[in-house]
């Protein structure tokens, strides 16, 4: 990007492969993916949860298909920063992914990501409620990924 060559170079050294973000939920898993340089995040899809084995198998397929080498899982903390029941579930899920897929997994604070996704989608034409829920999950994953990429780019600038 114009005027920021160090940002692009530093970020490119960090990624060079897409990063997958996951918005973990009890019923659905929202997925988003970055470009290879780690500059953009886009919603990918939403998986309806079935069972652990099937969920991991489908994630493995996305990882292989998109050449992912790093995964970010939303860390659902309470607004005051304390852990909740979902925080513990997401941590276990992240550990399972890391173990079964053999890829590094980073937990990323996801406070207000679903709210922000809802706000972004409110500006679009309404869909039926089932499609909207799926769209919110993958958009929330993109918000988580966008925030992660911004944090990593800021770290790269500090190191440069």
Features:
disordered N terminus; 160 residues; Nucleotidyltransferase, domain 5
Q: Structural class of the helix and strand makeup?
A: alpha/beta
Radius of gyration: 16 Å
**Strand content range:** 15-25%
Q: Provide the number of structural domains.
A: 1
CATH topology: Nucleotidyltransferase, domain 5
Name of the CATH first level: Alpha Beta
The biggest beta sheet is recorded as: 5 strands, mixed
Give the strand tally: 5
Helical amount: 40-55%
CATH superfamily: YqgF/RNase H-like domain
Spatial order of strands in the largest sheet: 3-2-1-4-5
Q: CATH architecture, please?
A: 2-Layer Sandwich
Brief characterization of the structure:
The protein is an alpha/beta fold and 160 residues long. The chain has helices spanning 5-14, 52-66, 85-101, 113-122, 129-159; strands at 19-24, 28-34, 41-48, 70-75, 105-109. Residues 1-13 have low confidence and may be disordered.
């Amino acid at each position: 990007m114009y005027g920021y060559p160090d940002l692009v170079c530093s970020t490119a050294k960090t990624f060079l492969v897409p990063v997958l973000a996951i918005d973990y939920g009890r019923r659905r898993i929202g997925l988003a993916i970055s470009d290879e340089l780690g500059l953009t995040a886009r919603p990918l899809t939403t998986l309806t949860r079935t069972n652990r084995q099937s969920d991991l198998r489908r994630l493995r397929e996305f990882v292989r298909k998109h050449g992912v080498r790093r995964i970010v899982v939303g860390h659902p903390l309470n607004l005051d920063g304390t852990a909740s029941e979902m925080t513990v579930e997401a941590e276990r899920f992240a550990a399972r992914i890391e173990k079964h897929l053999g890829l590094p997994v980073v937990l990323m604070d996801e406070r207000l990501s679903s709210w922000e996704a809802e706000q972004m989608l409110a500006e679009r034409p309404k869909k039926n409620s089932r499609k909207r829920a799926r769209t919110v999950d993958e958009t929330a994953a993109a918000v988580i990924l966008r925030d992660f990429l911004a944090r990593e780019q800021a770290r790269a600038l500090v190191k440069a």
